[in-house]
Structure formats: structure tokens, C-alpha cells
Amino acid sequence: MGSEKKYCAICAWRVGCQKRFSVPTDSQGQVRCPDYSRDLSIKDNDIEEAVKKDQQA
After folding, report:
1. CA separation for the pair 26, 36 (Å, rounded)
2. Is the distance from CB of 51 to CB of 9 less than 8 angstroms?
3. What residues make up the domain containing 42?
4. Cα separation of 8 and 15, whole Å?
């Protein structure tokens, strides 16, 4: 699973996260957060939509 996408928009802790704007990201915008856990209620095909929505906010 080396190609797993890690974005704040699909993290299970995104609602109450205090690190959201201070964690480092790579060139693709993926986070390197030790607390990251993927929200399993978001389906794979909905990830791109969630990321776009988060970037517009």
C-alpha cells in the first residue's frame, strides 16, 4: 500500500484537528502527520471530490 493517499480532507480526525495547517506536506499535498488515520466512511472514488472541496474552503 505504498500508493495510499494521505490528505487532511480524508483523515478521520479532520474535524477536531489542531495540526491541520502546521503539518508538513510533500509536493503532491499529501500530509506527513503521525496522527493520520484514514476515514473509512469515505469511499475510494469520493477521495478526489473531498480533496477538491477541502482546497476550495
Report:
1. 15
2. yes
3. 1-57
4. 10
